[in-house]
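From: lab user (bench 3)
To: helpdesk
Subject: output format question, protein + protoporphyrin IX containing FE

Hello, I'm new to running complex predictions and I'm not sure whether the block I got back is the full result or only part of it. Here's what I submitted:
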Amino acid sequence: MTTQSPTFSTPYQALGEQGIRELTNAFYDIMESLPEAAGIRAMHQDDLTPMKERLAEYLIGWMGGPPVYAQKYGSVCMTKPHAGFAIGESERDQWLLCMDRALDAIDAEPALREMLKEPMFGIADMIRNR
Ligand code: HEM
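Helpdesk reply: Thanks, we reran it on our side. This is the complete output you should expect:
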């Protein structure tokens, strides 16, 4: 069996803006309902709707698309908006679990998951502050 190269070179090319919005909607719906993510759910505001939008805008740029978040809010290092929350390995892993389940929910293809694995861990671990 030959391994096929992916037909995209960035996650944005694979998902498009719409796909990224579906991913972030699924991400916060999962955070809302997954008992294992209750710890990080409790850190967020009651209404997760604004976060669906903000994470989508951030990820569109981070995944190789237009820098919509930076255009709106300036180029913000992600450690800053998280500095007021206690984020250790457990919180990082809860976040990554939600992202993993969200990728399941949108039926993300294996090549995309592979492309995201290390950088997604990297940015979540960078946000960790204890
Ligand atoms: C490592 C575990 C993480 C935890 C526990 C966490 C938690 C939070 C919390 C509590 C907020 C504030 C939400 C609110 O006001 O309701 C927030 C904001 C945000 N987070 Fe995270 N986060 C994590 C990782 C990430 C990662 C990896 C990304 C990006 C890939 C990200 C992107 C954002 C964005 C874009 C905002 C909004 C910032 C703003 O514009 O104010 N977060 N996060």
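A quick orientation on your result: The CA atoms of residues 46 and 85 lie 16 Å apart. Let us know if anything else is unclear.
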